[in-house]
Amino acid sequence: MIKDKETFLRQVALMPELKGNKLSLVFALHPSIDISKKEKFVDNISHHFVRIKEEERGEIVSERDRKSNDIESWIGKDLRINKIKLKSVRGFPDSTMPFGINFKNEDGKPESMIILGSNGSGKSSIYNSIEYNYCKKIGEAQLRTSANLEDEDSEFKSYLSHFDNGFGNSMCDIETVDEIFKLQSTNIPKEVRKRINPNTHFISDYDIYYNGQLSYLKGNTGSFHNLIAESLGLSELLQFERNLRAFTSYRRATESTRINSLEKSSKEENALIVSAQKSLEEKKQKLVQFSETEKKQPLDSKVQELQKLVAQLKFANYNFQFDFQILDENIVKYELKYKEFEALEFKTGNISQIQFLNLGLELLKDATDCPLCNSSKKSTTEISAFVLDRIKQIESFNTINQELTKAFNYATENLDNFFNQIALLKGKVTQELYTIKSYSEFSELISGENSFITFIETTQASEFYSVGSTMNDSDLFKLNKNQFLFSFFETNKEYINNELKSIIDNISMFASQRNEIITNIEKQLATNLQSRTLFEQIVTVKNEITGLEQQLIVSRKKIQSNDVELKNYREQQALFKSIKDDTRIFSIHFHTLLSKEVLQAFAPIKLIVEEVLEKYIKQEEREVELEIKMKEEEIDSETGEVLSEIITALIVPKDKSLQPLPVNKYFNTFHYRLFSTMVGISIAMASRINTRINLPLVLDDIFYASDFENRATIERFIKELFKVFEEYTPELELQLILFTHDQLIFESAVRAIAETKVKNIAFAKLFPHNNAKDKGDYKELAYRMPSYLPYTIMQNTLTKV
After folding, report:
1. DSSP character at residue 232
2. d(CA 478, CA 476)
C-alpha cells in the first residue's frame, strides 16, 4: 500500500526511538507545514514546536485507523488501452476525422500489440501522445533540453503541437478499461500521479539514458536507490527528506550576529558610562574649585582642540543616496522579463541561424523539395511555414534575452550599489567612533553612532544582505545567474516590500541626525570660549554635569534594553538549536523508515534484473557475476548499528583477487543499454506489485537489430519480458505495446511470442496517416496481421534455419 505523507509522518512519530522528539510530533500533527525553504524552516515550525507536549503523541492515529484517501480510489484500476484517437499532434495533421488505433481483440478486451512502422510513420508521435496522457510529461522532450521540466510544462505542450496549430487544438483521446483520458485533461490527479508514477511503464531512449546515468553505489538524488523510491510514489517524501537535509546543513547567522552586535553595543555603552563618570567627577571637582576661587580656569586650549575635531567631523560626508523606488522598479522589470524568457518554447538561436534560415527560404522558392536533404516528407509550403515560424522564435528569443540581460544588469548594479554603500558607511562610522570615543563632550554622538553600528550589523545579518552581497561567489549563481537572482527576489519578496524601504529611510536619516548633534556640540564649544564671569562658568559646569548625568541614564537604559533583546535572541538561538538537534535525529529515523519502504520492492527488482542479465553473462562465458544487494549506507559510530542501507549493483569477478566493478564501468554499450532497460522494466514491475494498478507497458523503438548479436538474443529478451510479468503479477494481464522500425526486431518478436504461446496479442504494420483506413468515427492507422500469420512466419524461419 502506498503511504501518503501524512500517514508516513504519523508512522515515523510512533517510532520508539523518537519518543521525546518534539519535531516528530509537529510533523505528525501538522503535516502541511512548509519546510521547502531552509531560511523559513524555524519560523514556520517554532510556533508549534514551543507549544506541543509529549502527551499529544497519544493522539496520533496509527496508519491502519486512518481514513481512506484519494489514492485508494485508484488502487486496482485497469488502465490498459482499448482505443486511441488523435489529430493535430506532432506529425499528425488536423483532420475532420481523427486518426487512431484499436487495441481491442474480438472479445472487445484490450490486447498487446507489436507495431512495425518505418521512420516518419508516426510511431513516436503516438507514443509521446499516450505518454503525456498518462504522465503529463514526455521523456523525448526532456532528452532535448537541460532544463528540469515539471509536469504539464509548456515545453511538453509545444513539443506535441503540430506546427503552428497550437496545443489547444491537439487531440489524443484514450479509452482505457476503467477511464477515459483526454490530452487537455489532468486524467490522473497530480497527487495520485506522484505516488503511482505511471512513467515507470513508458520506456524510451530517455529512460535508457537516464537509467544509464544513475549511480549504482550511492544513495543520493541521482542514484539507483533513489529512482526506486521515486518510482514507488515516494517522491513527495523524498523531497521532504531533501528539505530536512538542507536545513540540517544550514547555518543561520541572524541570531548570533544580532547577539554579538548587542553585546558589542552594551560594551560600548559601558565604556561610555565609565568615561562619563570620570568626566562627571572632574566637573564636580571643578565646581568645587569655582566655589573656592574666582580664578578663571585655563579651558580655552582644550576647547580649541575640540573645535578643530568638530570641523573635521563636519567636513566628512555621511549622506546615503539610494532610491528604493528605482530598485523596486528594476526588480519588477527583471521578474517580468525572466517570466517572459521562461515562457519561451525555444531558448536557442542567433543571427547566424537566422541568416541560414533566410537563405534556405530563398532556395526553397525554386525547389520542389527540401533544398538540404531532398527527401522531406513535408511539402515546400509546410517547410516554409516551419522555417518562418522558427525565424520568429529565434528573433523573439534574441529580443527577450537582450531585455532580460539588460534588466539583470540594472537590478544587480542597484543591489551592488546598496551593499557597497552600507559597507562603506559602516567603515566610516567605525573609524569616527575610534577618533572621538575618548572625549566626553561627544558622548551623545558616540551613543548615536554606537546605535547606528548595531542597526547596520543587524541589517547585514539578514538573509537579503548576507546572500545578496556574496551572490557573485555562489556556485549556484555561477551555474544559472538568472534563475538564482529570480529565486533570490522571490525568497526575499516580503523583506523587500516590508522592511527594506524602512531600513533605507533610517540610514538616510542618520546623516542629518549626526549633523544636528555636531552643530549642538559646536555651539556649546563656542559658548565655552567666550569670556564669562565666574557665575556664568559655574552655570556652564552645572549644565554639563546635568548633561552627563542624563547621558548616564540614557546609556544605562540602553544597556537594559539590550539585555532584554539579548535574552530574546538567546532564546531564539536556543530554540533554533533545539529544532536543529531534533531535525538531525528525526532525519535519521525518517530516512531509515523511508529506506524500508524502498526495500519492499527490492526482491522483485533484484530477481528480475539478475535473472535476465545473468543469462547473457553465462552465455558469453564471462567469469563474473551480477550482484544486486543491500549495502550499509550509514552506521552509528558508537554502537556500530546499521542506521540505513541502500540498493547497489556490482559486477563481481569469480576470481576473488580482483575488485568488483560498478555496472557502468564493466558493461559494453549494448549490455549497459540492456541493463538500463531491464532496470526500467523491473521498476515498472515493482510499481505494479505495489499499486495493483494495471498500466500498459509501452516501449518506443528502444532496440535495433544491430544491438543484438543474433536473432536468438532478441527472442530471449522478449520471452523473458513476458515471463517476468506473468511470474510476478499473474493477476494483472500484461498489455505490451512495442513500437519498432526494425524488421528483424519485429520478426524476432513474432517468433518469440509464437514459441511461448502468449495469448491476446496482435501484430500490426503502421500506415502513414494519409493511408489510414476509415473506420466510422476514426481512421485506423494500424494494419493487423491475420492471426495465422505469426505462426507462418515462425515456421518459415524454422525452415530457413
Report:
1. I
2. 5
Residue 191 has, within 13 A of its CA and on its CB side, a CA count of 9
pLDDT tens digits, residue range 150-197?
A: 888 888 998 899 887 888 899 999 999 999 999 999 999 887 887 777
Residue 544, CA atoms < 13 Å, CB-side half-sphere? 27
Position 67 scores a pLDDT of 42
Domain assignment of residue 360, given as a range? 298-530
Residue 409 lies in a domain: yes
For the whole model, what pTM was predicted?
Answer: 0.56
- At residue 319, the 3 state secondary structure works out as coil
The pLDDT assigned to 151 comes to 85
How many structural domains is the chain composed of?
1
Residue 506 counted as domain residue: yes
Question: Please, what's the b/e burial string for 565-589 (b: 16 or more CB within 10 A of its CB; e: otherwise)?
Answer: bbeebeebbebbebbbebbebbbbb
Asked if the structure places residue 480 within a domain, the reply is: yes
Q: How far apart are the first and last CA of the chain?
A: 49
| Domain membership flag for residue 381 | yes
Backbone angles phi, psi at 617, to 5 degrees: -65, -45
| Rg of the chain, C-alpha, whole Å | 37
**Higher confidence at residue 583 or residue 790?**
583
Phi then psi for 445, rounded to 5 degrees? Answer: -65, -40
DSSP H or E stretch at residue 736? strand 736-740
Could you report the per-residue pLDDT of 592-644, keeping only the tens digit for each? 888 777 776 666 667 766 776 676 677 667 888 888 877 776 655 555 555 55
Sequence-separated (6 or more) residues with CB below 8 Å from residue 195: 2, 4, 71, 233, 234, 235, 236
